[in-house]
Amino acid sequence: LTHQYVAQLKGTTTKLLDTRKTTPNFRLLEKEAVRIGGGVNHRFGLFDMIMLKDNHIDYAGGIEKAIQAATDYVQTKKPDLKIEVETRTLDDVKKVLAVNSSKVFRIMLDNFSPAEVKKAVKLIEHKYETEASGGINLENIVDYAHAGVDYVSVGALIHQARSLDLSLKAMK
């Protein structure tokens, strides 16, 4: 399945990311399967990247406060930890850009249309990596790539993967 998505991206600079949503106890195997298929692994756990998702942002009182709290934590506790910020609108993207934290390395454009992604990428101007996520499938992945995003993340790589039908016969 990963290879099918990667094949759609041929001729673009966009890379395919898996997501953090894996089957319990199968994370390493599923992430290795994505890598073998030509995809790129996102984070493996809470230890290797901070992802400021919508719930974190809402709880913190907004994107600016969430980024500041995460930046303060990283600077005092884990200086090498990177921060990715989920955005839901172009206004959110502008807020991330206004904060200008050196610890933020990627902006996730969640449930943006390809046209909105193109506008966001233009606003970001390569200051941060960009990732499109949500609603991306084999039919529209090329549209996201042509919008100029660095990465697309696709949960279907894990939750729509088909298993191989195997059986084992015991012989006397």
Anisotropy-based shape: globular
**Beta-strand share of residues:** 15-25%
- Spatially, the strands of the biggest sheet line up as 1-6-5-4-3-2
Q: What does the main sheet amount to? A: 6 strands, parallel
Share of helical residues: 40-55%
Going by helix content, strand content and strand pairing, the class is alpha/beta
Q: In whole angstroms, how far apart are the ends?
A: 38 Å
Number of helices: 8
Which spans of ≥5 residues are poorly predicted at pLDDT below 50? none
CATH class: Alpha Beta
CATH superfamily membership:
Aldolase class I
Mean pLDDT: 88
H/E element sequence: HEHEHHEHEHEHEH
Number of domains: 1
User: What is the CATH topology assignment?
Assistant: TIM Barrel
CATH architecture: Alpha-Beta Barrel
Q: Based on DSSP secondary structure assignment, what is the total number of beta strands?
A: 6
Radius of gyration computed on alpha carbons: 18 Å
